[in-house]
Design brief:
- It is built from 13 helices and no strands.
- With about 290 residues, the chain is mainly alpha-helical.
- About 80% of the residues lie in helices and about 0% in strands.
- It has one domain.
Length: about 290
């Protein structure tokens, strides 16, 4: 199997795993914050093992020699904890469809943050996509009379997380996740100890699932990193829609979540925006291939 084909399969694998996680989190019959605490706790030793196997553990101290890198890891840790916590709560409280919307609009939020914070310039198609998606979310909010806070929290927490990753001082993917988990480790352990998070010790099946949460955190991220090294970023950008598509399908088909007319309106405009965005990305990638 050539490198590019392997990269595509690794990317598909990562997004499929992320897409079917609602099935996993609904099998862990524990409070969302307790699951989040265990996810952080058990991701830590798994990351140490992965980095050791890849012979990169010895370089972690050097990666975090800069105070700026340590600060970025701490801030990124807070953002990813918010993202994980909201997502776990959403999928275990019948808000899977709303969660999927957050990941559908996340790429467009990232584009908007690039313009506002990094002063990047939008192409006309990108500008149109952002406007259409904004109208979709705003219209859905007006019709429902309730702010889709789950979608917005997921989209913006991951959007700002990605923004921090663009910083030149940010650590590489695996080392970065280790730094983020390390920054969250003490609060997670304190919460589990003080809040009486005893699900782990009173139910063996749930304990095994909670332990697996650490694997579920690390493995798809490793697959994503390996894919990013082998295939163009534009291909990664298109593959990322696999995850929210699967989440949406699971929410509607498996868990029978209903969709109101306002949600249909919002999703339709967001999907139109993503088609415009994806088509623009594909055209740019084609031009770059022709130029080389």
């Amino acid at each position: 199997m050539d490198s590019q084909r392997k990269g595509i399969w690794l990317g598909v694998g990562a997004y499929v795993v992320w897409g079917v996680t609602p099935l996993f989190w609904n099998l862990v019959e524990a409070p969302a914050l307790e699951v989040l605490g265990h996810r952080i706790l058990w991701a830590f030793p798994i990351l140490l093992v992965v980095l050791a196997l890849r012979r990169r553990l010895g370089g972690v101290r050097r990666v975090y020699a800069s105070p700026r890198t340590r600060l970025l890891a701490a801030l990124s840790g807070v953002l990813i904890a918010v993202n994980w916590g909201v997502y776990i709560w959403a999928v275990t409280n019948d808000h899977i469809v709303e969660a999927s919307l957050g990941y559908f609009i996340n790429p467009l939020v990232s584009v908007a943050l690039g313009v506002v914070v990094l002063k990047e310039h939008l192409r006309p198609a990108q500008r149109l996509a952002v406007i259409v998606a904004t109208v979709g979310v705003a219209g859905m909010t007006a019709m429902l009379g309730v702010l889709p806070w789950v979608s917005l929290a997921l989209a913006f927490s991951f959007g700002f997380y990605g923004l921090l990753k663009k910083n030149a001082a940010a650590a590489p993917a695996l080392e970065g996740l280790l730094g983020e988990v390390t920054a969250l480790l003490v609060p997670a352990v304190l919460y589990l100890a003080l809040a009486g998070g005893d699900t782990f010790v009173t139910s063996v099946p749930i304990a095994l699932w909670v332990l697996a949460a650490g694997v579920l955190t690390v493995v798809p991220l490793w697959m994503f990193g390996a894919a990013a090294q082998r295939i163009p970023l534009s291909t990664i950008g298109l593959l990322q829609y696999l995850a929210p598509t699967l989440q949406f399908g699971i929410g509607v088909i498996v868990y029978g979540e209903s969709i109101a007319g306002a949600q249909i309106f919002g999703f339709t405009l967001v999907w139109i925006a993503l088609v415009v965005f994806a088509r623009d990305q594909a055209m740019i990638a084609r031009r770059l291939r022709m130029a080389t």
